[in-house]
Amino acid sequence: MTYYPIFLKVKNRNCLLVGAGAVGVRKLKSILECNPKQVTVLDTAEPGDEMLEISHDQRVIFEQRPFEDEDLNDVFIAFACTSNAEVNRRMADLCAEKNILCNIADFPEGSNFIVPSVIRQGDLTLAVSSGGCTPAFTKKIRRELQGIFGPHYAAFITLMGRIRPQVLDLGKETSQNTALFRQLVASPILDELEAGNMVRVEEILAQTLPQELVPRIPELIDDLI
User: Is 141 part of any domain?
Assistant: First the structure.
């Protein structure tokens, strides 16, 4: 099956997760990284130690009880992570009726989206998927990519995130800004960040940035690594 790749904004949204076992806890952690408004977690079993610890997060509401149809009211996205196929399929059917995004663990056919393997370095997110055919292989690719995209990528993106608005505030033509951003991306800054050579990073910025921004370089590179 071919899926449409998308990065979904769940900030300030209500989420539902049914099943607080190892798979559910893993998915809960990834949801919380994206700043939801609230995640309701349901499970009929006693919560494990890790789930108890996570439930201290004010955004998490854990309830030890079965799933009920009404739990999907006012929900943006739902995850079914139980070992009960009947419950999982009921959730899938209800979500389809209500047009709610739903992921059923180990049952991509009943889901309207699947969760890829993810690599995060700051604001850089890389997602890898095999369309649900072979999760083991996507995990292998993820491990390989983690060895390539280290913390220096996060530092570089943070730096560019600081530079971009200040460049745009100068009011120069779009073509000039585009050329500057491309020049920065093509520069050795990423390599120097990996080497921890901040003196060289400062030199490159001084040679590349508009003169108006040169005095701001110390604040641009502050606490990058």
Answer: no
144 domain residue, yes or no = no
Give the residue numbers spanning the domain of 183: 151-220
Query: 179-213, pLDDT tens digit by residue?
Result: 999 999 999 999 999 999 999 999 999 999 999 99
Q: Answer for the pair 190, 152: CB distance below 8 angstroms, yes or no.
A: yes
Are 19 and 105 in a shared domain?
yes
Please indicate, yes or no, whether residues 156 and 69 belong to a single structural domain of this protein: no
Tell me how many domains the chain contains.
2
Distance of alpha carbon 82 from alpha carbon 6, whole angstroms: 25
| Burial class (CB within 10 angstroms; exposed 0-12, middle 13-18, buried 19+) of 120 | middle
- CB-based contacts of 67, cutoff 8 Å, min separation 6: 18, 42, 82, 87, 90, 91
Going by the DSSP 8-state scheme, the letter that residue 172 receives in this structure is: -
Whole-model pTM over 0.70: yes
| Cβ atoms < 10 Å from Cβ of 32 | 16
What is d(CA 106, CA 48) in angstroms, rounded to the nearest whole number? 21
